[in-house]
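User: Round two. Same drill as before: sequence, then structure, for each protein.

Assistant: Same drill it is. First protein:
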Amino acid sequence: MVSLVTAMQTDGYALPALVLSNVPTAGGLEKAKALGVTTAVVDHLSFGSDKAAFESAMHKELLRGEIDLVCLAGFMRVLSANFVAKWEGRILNIHPSLLPKYKGLDTHARALRAKDTEAGCSVHVVTPDLDAGPILGRARVPIYAQDTADMLAARVLKQEHLLYPQVLQRFLRGNDTLLELAT
């Protein structure tokens, strides 16, 4: 989130209008405030199992903030088809694997167990199917013999911070062709 906000503010290609979190104690909220970005919290826990009510509250916050495009960054909830339909083509996400490989969680450990020689991250358009939307960008990193999941995650995170702002800028200019970064 900080990389996206900083890039938007520095390069002027978009206005970061709102940082919305479902976790009241998320560290990104204070970082966003320090960068002059409005923040809001819709705590999913306060809605219990009523996912529709939680997503309705998020939708209202996004509308209140006059948001045009949603960039997920560290948002660890699966969005319903109903919510995604309201924002069709206007939600991007960053995922810590070279999609379509390793959708979901534990991507780094899975890549290591599979003895892959490279890993990376992908930016994609969010669709109702988990991590299955059109891929807009990928950044590759090598996997080394001594890597642990944490070591690999740290290298991938550096690439996420480079890739996401570049993909966002291209997407906002109407370019949805695949951007491939290599290290």
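Second protein:
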Amino acid sequence: MDPLIAVAGRALATGDPLGALNQIALRDDAPALALRGIAMAQLGDLVRAKALMRRAARAFGPKEAVARARCVVAEAEIALASRDLGWPAKTLDAARVTLEAHGDRVNAAHARYLDVRRLLLVGSLDDAERALAMLDPTPFPLALRVAHELVVAGIAMRRFQTKTARAALARAERAAHRAGIPALTAEVESAALILNTPAARLISSGGEKLLLLEDVEALLASKALVVDACRQLVRDASAVVSLARRPVLFALARALGEAWPEDVPRDTLVARAFRAKHADESYRARLRVEMGRLRKVLGTLAGVSATKRGFVLVPRAAREVVVLAQPVEDKHAAVLVFLVDGESWTSSALALVLGASQRTVQRSLDSLAAAGKVQSFGRGRARRWMTPPVPGFATSLLLPTPLPND
């Protein structure tokens, strides 16, 4: 092997992109282009990194299938880092098959981890778990073991399994320390921070308070009836009713949950559900219809009883009713929750993970930009959006993914 390429490769493996560039910065042969691309990616210049990886893939000859496949895997990692979630998964899968066929199990496993991380990012937790179950990190390098444990922790946090998440993060921390790569250590520390910062806000008859992720886990396992405003559902320890596609019913359920055990006046319910300034007879009639629908949807979880001035929520088995809300509520919170990770996002990627139209997402981005909460750079398809992380709040509960028993 070319000695300069070997030295540059070792430098990149230890997280020293500048040391690698000192060896191959002026070279344009295929191996050097590939290593330059990885170095630029480690330095954060993802646009140049992507261009270099594509040049490297073209520079490798048709007989160098393994090298070309490695370039494809590297480009997929750059796409994931730059939140280009529309990158073709079939291309990555084909590269993985090539690597496995030629005995390059480490890079093939890296390709699988990239796919799992993408599934986790877009909220496909079941698919991510199935793909992760096919991987045994024991024989892999320390960097891949860290990646494995971070995915395990990410899935566990989204499932509200804090003990599993903490154990995975502890293993990741030990592996990152042994690897001696600062970027890996920083990534583990960033993931661990989520467990130690407020993840949600509890609204009950006793007032409001912020909850850590483990507090949320305990709440969901308790005998309380929870109106979850993060995911727009109503649940207790035994059942879940999703109202994500029925916003009027959820608005009514939240209003009743916030007031419990007191009732809510009809005028207040009309204003919350229909955004009407005056509750005339037509709105009151519509309110009765929607309350009947809510009563039917909640089924065994709770009843809805009429009172002299309005309606009250009556839990069937739960001891109390509480509302679980986002730590900071904002009209465009669903978009902000992804942008606060500090990465740059395209509007198309945000639309994909939110399950919304790109035009709706673009309107939210324009409003946030006008308020100075986000900023963009680039133009056209290269335009990306980002914002500095909001200190003091975790965002895992805000991600719009289905619960395990949905």
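Residues 162-179 form the longest helix (18 residues).

User: Perfect.
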